[in-house]
Write a structure and sequence with these properties.
By secondary structure, the protein is of the alpha/beta class. The protein has 17 helices and 15 strands.
Length: 577
């Protein structure tokens, strides 16, 4: 088996924390400690993103190699130092003999889900090999009846999920969380609203040294660091934090991959000033993050990211509430878990640098994402039959606020399909019978998928990866699926599922270098170019110079030109201005 190629993850901002909380839960749900399955070379190698450690009591732990930056008031009942390692200073005797007055803030109460996790942990044997909230073993040992009982409480769950720590089921290392006390998560004032505020934070030696110390801690224990994953809020001041963080990573860790995901929750148009702030943060973040990263991909369920956002993306078999970060972040985490699989596979030699290089040629460092959650297939349907039902294009939905692919060219793409059983990957006809299609003549599942992609988009350079294991879903993952799905996420054809939960789903994702980016970046440039941004002096007083902003706008236009399609007429420069 290949040695692990470790990755350090950074989550910057509250919505990034929400996506991350679901993502770590999805990975923990698929943990496998069965030596036979491990040696098979199939599936995800979790040592890429997770690390082993020991508590002060000598108990082994398995936690994400993760740094989280968020604001004061965002952790709710979660302790900054976590709960795995007791603080040796917590109960130290005080030598002072005089009167003492203790001021202690009441901890936030845990929601019913977290209380249930704590009860489950207290009931488990104390001699476990690892401290995890998912039972060790090849498969989840929670009974189907227990999961149905948890699913029956789902309508109440949404109202208790206020911050990302409310649905975090994965234990974190004490050095993972870095709280920014200078700004508040709640309230109308003292907010981290502007790009310049975020940049200034990492010019403060206190936060910069804290970040560097945590980076060194996680990096120095790696045998072969392949790079960094950065999940960053794009719509607020954390875009400025992300710009400085990715610049630091690029300068300090030359040659390592940096994959950055710019995350945006559902947008509101009620406050015009906040809308303009959000657009300027997005543009500045997009330019700087893509410039410092190997590859940058915006992720959002908004139809667009302009001043007048389009309605949220509709998914055929998911009935999500677009106003809930708890719902939207779960969908993005599901796509993220699948499309990052190529550099986390046990049997693959592909690194995140190789994945980025397959998409970022000719200066195209901004990728788009698409996903089908679930991939539409019947329980007994073969992969060739399922794909033949969608002869014009793969039935995925756009997740980068760039619109549908349509007739726009896709230059290159990395496609990952998971959750189709091995016996259904091919469907060769019996001897003497004509095959239904060219897909039914293929020898392997990879050949089926590659042939389909070549047929539907022959000018696109496609790489494909297949995972047999589906995306495993465990509470508190939302149960927002169509009743047409069975418990394994396949289309049953009739609405037969009542209170039973969907336990797993097949998923297909794509990371694409697409000509859609040309139109999207051009639209953002045009919207800001037509405004007199000097009227919003408060934004620039936070630290961004007007000349620097204008330069970023020109960089945005230059970046958009990398995605022009040859032979397609462009509007003149005068019209664009």
């Amino acid at each position: 088996m290949l040695s692990p190629r470790e990755v350090v993850t950074l989550q910057l901002g509250h919505y990034a924390g929400s996506v991350g909380a679901h993502w770590w839960g999805l990975q923990e749900a698929s943990f496998c400690f069965d030596p036979v399955d491990k040696e098979s070379g199939e599936g995800i190698r979790h040592d890429v993103l997770f690390r082993t450690g020991k508590t002060l009591q000598g108990q082994e732990t398995y936690t994400p190699r993760l740094i989280v930056m968020d604001l004061k008031g965002s952790l709710s009942s979660l302790k900054q130092e976590g709960c795995l390692y007791q603080d040796p200073k917590a109960n130290t005797p005080v030598a002072w003999k005089g009167n003492l007055m203790t001021h202690q803030e009441e901890p936030s109460p845990k929601n019913p889900f977290l209380q249930g996790l704590d009860r489950a942990e207290s009931d488990k044997p104390s001699n476990r090999d690892f401290v995890l909230r998912t039972p060790p073993g090849g498969k989840d040992r929670t009974s189907s009846l227990e999961r149905q009982g948890e699913a029956s409480k789902a309508p109440k769950v949404e109202h208790t999920m206020h911050v990302w720590s409310d649905f975090l089921r994965t234990h974190l290392h004490p050095r993972s969380i870095l709280t920014i006390h200078q700004y508040d998560h709640d309230g109308e004032s003292n907010r981290l609203e502007a790009f310049g505020q975020g940049e200034k934070l990492l010019q403060d030696p206190t936060y910069l040294e804290e970040l560097e110390d945590r980076l060194h801690f996680f990096v120095e224990e790696c045998d072969y660091l392949q790079g960094f994953q950065v999940l960053c809020d794009l719509h607020n001041g954390f875009s400025g934090v992300g710009a400085k963080v990715t610049e630091l990573l690029r300068d300090e860790y030359t040659g390592k991959g940096i994959l950055t995901w710019g995350l945006t929750p559902m947008l509101s148009t009620l406050n015009p000033q906040l809308g303009l702030y959000r657009l300027m943060n997005t543009v500045l973040g997009l330019v700087h993050l893509s410039g410092h990263s190997s590859l940058f991909c915006p992720l959002s369920l908004n139809g667009s990211l302009g001043l007048r956002p389009q309605p949220p993306i509709a998914l055929p078999y998911v009935q999500y509430d677009a106003s809930l970060d708890y719902h939207t972040s779960a969908l993005l985490a599901t796509a993220l878990d699948t499309c990052t699989a190529p550099y986390r596979l046990q049997s693959s030699t592909l690194s995140m640098v190789h994945l980025a290089e397959a998409l970022n040629f000719s200066g195209r460092k901004v990728a788009t994402a698409a996903a089908a959650v679930p991939f539409p297939a019947a329980p007994s349907q073969s992969l060739p039959d399922a794909l033949c039902a969608h002869q014009s294009a793969m039935p995925w939905s756009p997740l980068s606020s760039c619109g549908e692919q349509g007739d726009s060219r896709c230059f290159a793409q990395s496609v990952v399909l998971r959750g189709i059983p091995k016996e259904r990957l091919v469907s060769k006809p019996p001897p003497g019978c004509e095959p239904k299609s060219i897909l039914h003549m293929c020898e392997t599942g990879e050949e089926v998928l590659a042939r389909y992609l070549y047929t539907t988009c022959p000018t696109t350079l496609s790489t494909v990866h297949l995972l047999q294991g589906p995306c495993q879903l465990r509470p508190p993952y939302p149960q927002y699926f169509s009743p047409l799905l069975d418990k394994r996420g396949f289309l049953s054809g009739t609405s037969t599922r009542a209170s039973a939960t969907v336990e797993s789903v097949p998923v297909v994702t794509a990371l694409q270098a697409s000509a859609l980016v040309h139109r999207t970046l051009g639209t953002l440039h045009k919207e800001l170019h037509q405004l007199d941004v000097r009227r919003w002096a408060s934004f620039f007083s936070a630290g961004v110079e007007l000349d620097d902003f204008q330069e970023a706008l020109e960089d945005l236009r230059t970046l958009s030109h990398c995605y022009r399609e040859s032979g397609v007429e462009e509007e003149s420069e005068d019209e664009a201005d």
